[in-house]
Amino acid sequence: MTYLEELGCKAKKAEAAIRGISQNTKNLALAAVADSLVKNAELIISDNQKDIENAKANNMSEAMQDRLRLDMKRIEAMAEGVRKIVELPDPVGKVWGGKELPNGLKIVKKSVPLGVVGIIFESRPNVTVDAAALCLKSGNVSVLRGGSDAINSNKRLVSIMREAISGAGVDENAINLVEDTSREAVGEFMKLNRYIDVLIPRGGHGLIQNVVNNSTIPVIQTGEGNCSVYVDKSADIETAVNIVDNGKTQRPSVCNAIENILVHEDAAEEFLRALDKKWNGKVKIYGDAAASKYIKTDREATEEDYKTEFLDYVISVKTVKDISEAIDFINTYGTRHSECIVTSELSNAERFQREVDAAAVYVNASTRFTDGGEFGLGAEIGISTQKLHARGPMGLEEMTSYKYLINGNGQIRQ
Amino acid sequence: MTYLEELGCKAKKAEAAIRGISQNTKNLALAAVADSLVKNAELIISDNQKDIENAKANNMSEAMQDRLRLDMKRIEAMAEGVRKIVELPDPVGKVWGGKELPNGLKIVKKSVPLGVVGIIFESRPNVTVDAAALCLKSGNVSVLRGGSDAINSNKRLVSIMREAISGAGVDENAINLVEDTSREAVGEFMKLNRYIDVLIPRGGHGLIQNVVNNSTIPVIQTGEGNCSVYVDKSADIETAVNIVDNGKTQRPSVCNAIENILVHEDAAEEFLRALDKKWNGKVKIYGDAAASKYIKTDREATEEDYKTEFLDYVISVKTVKDISEAIDFINTYGTRHSECIVTSELSNAERFQREVDAAAVYVNASTRFTDGGEFGLGAEIGISTQKLHARGPMGLEEMTSYKYLINGNGQIRQ
């Protein structure tokens, strides 16, 4: 057995026990995790410091170093995140429905954990704690594969969590870390169908495409958001400017931020002049020829721009001749995450919501609301951009499957 | 563009229109399909005859030829299947829930079609009609890739269906056939993520594993059933014999038939002697040493047998020392399809249903009931053995995803 097969095997063995533990035990274990993270903050910071030093030696950018860094405040925020998960309703054991057949057979459809969930993510170590806690709360065993940049932090965090849950009577193998962060190991990890039920990648385009293209385990694709706002001919211009501004500048680095503006040619002049005034050069604009008449553009937009999730103070602007062209654009270049129309015409609002193929389709509101917290799911493991299983923000319920329990007294099929 | 890219592109283009058509239009189109199949039965039979002749020339077994053959009765049965689908409730547009946020934003979670569904299947041409009809009813565009054995039949069936729906005002590209049945084409087909949302393989172990291992499109794994019955110490022997007999012999070639018997050592003598009497050599038995004392076995069972879906009058028998060993066996060798315990002890019934990881877990009833029709789903595209998206029998509802529709009046995120 390879290192990963052994790890997978241990995780799979823990699965049956974890699936069966009570809500109380899970909650006590998670509370212990939260306490233990705070109590061991110094150890965490010291191991995180090793990662930071390596990052500096490897010339990691300041922004990336910041994502990697843990301090007392961030550790307390992680612990607080875990405590919030404790308070959420348990998604396991919910009865979705049932019936009694004419022959007396009783069928019940009941929610169960997914089983063993693999998570592949990048350098932010808070994902380690967040993902492990969401998995445990939903009765799943987690196998976490973080980036090599954060390996020292992750080892410490996982070791603290394992000790904490074990003290609360939960098998420590409910939370597992892949310590081999090599490229070969991640390749092998994505093919451990025998031990892992579902794989969730959390990270940028490259990471997600690598998992989608190479995993033989069922994948939930998350987090790529090439989102657009379409400003209709009938749009209220102030509303449009506010929604576009919020979508681009409130937090440009997140997946529900917008990357493209589509504006009806008849609204282009008024809208773009107003936006130009609002932004005044704050956002770099790649625009088509028509747009550049009314707003200061950096250069002409290319097809590549339309496909790009900038995640920065950069946006593309395209004028369109009607709503059909806008919908076509979105269905062609979008990643099926969040899309918005600003309009005052009911039929256009309805058509946009019907024909745009995305997890969240907005009328007259900012795409920034696509979020587990905002949607009231309490917590979020990611935002699914695929249509299988879950779509949009994935909370605890989306971390479960179901099974049919059938009870009879000797029924056989005729 | 390759042949398949062109086909995928056409299918994707049809998607937006198909997603939006009314229940009435879909039902009229399906009714037209049913009528047209019957009306064109002679053409179908004549093209099917070409496949049968090729099959004979290729020395296909009689049993396989029989699966391939279409006659008037079978065509009428296909049409009747389509008419039944017309009568089922439309799964699209169902509101799963919604809420109004404190800021006035209204969120509705609504069922939508999956989009473009690829189906890869083997030689039975009735799957062609069944799959296309289920996809259309659920608002999905289908791209059907049947086996080369049935290519003449499939071309005719698809051409009839396309003409019929087109006559009812539905874009004929809602139903598509991959006419290139080469190995290379199927490899390319499984990577058409840009055009196909979900891939469903229907067939034997080899086909399914090929799709699971090579597809980059999200897959729903269906239909492999290595199912077991565990006869507990406390089992009523007559009940156990009837359930085992029904599971093995009522229709051995289907996925919910049983392939293994596990019997508690204390029940082995009485149960196996009774089963021996019932079967009297009708079923070939691979048994362990203990079992062979009480029932006529062909040879000793091997680990390979425990993994094998015989789909024939063949079964393996293993005595176990307790329920734990039975559950371990099932979770090790089972395909998570359907599993059964025969017992009169409540705690064992509950433990088995909790700890066995399968789509359908039975107490004192035959596994043969795992079926969309029996479960009241009306129709079935397959039986999922994975935990992502759908588990167990997949009906029309399982052929949908959902989207969030969010309506505001200028809300932005703070």
Polypeptide structure, described:
- Two copies of one chain form a homodimer.
- The radius of gyration of chain A is 24 Å and the shape is globular.
- In chain A, helix 2 packs across helix 7 (151-167), helix 5 (72-87) packs parallel to helix 6 and helix 10 (237-249) crosses helix 11.
- By secondary structure, chain A is an alpha/beta fold.
- Chain A has helices at residues 3-20, 23-39, 41-57, 62-68, 72-87, 126-137, 151-167, 183-189, 205-214, 237-249, 265-279, 303-307, 323-333, 346-355, and strands spanning 95-100, 106-113, 116-121, 141-145, 175-177, 198-202, 227-231, 258-264, 284-287, 299-300, 314-320, 338-342, 360-365, 382-384, 392-394, 400-411.
- Chains A and B meet through helix 1, helix 10, helix 14, strand 13 and strand 16 of A and helix 1, helix 10, helix 14, strand 13 and strand 16 of B.
Oligomer state of the chains in this structure: homodimer
Largest sheet of chain A: 7 strands, parallel
Order of helices and strands of chain A: HHHHHEEEHEHEHEHEHEHEEHEHEHEEEE
Number of strands of chain A: 16
Percentage of helical residues of chain A?
A: 40-55%
Q: Given the structure, what is the number of helices of chain A? A: 14
Residue stretches of chain A low in confidence (pLDDT < 50, at least 5 long) are: none
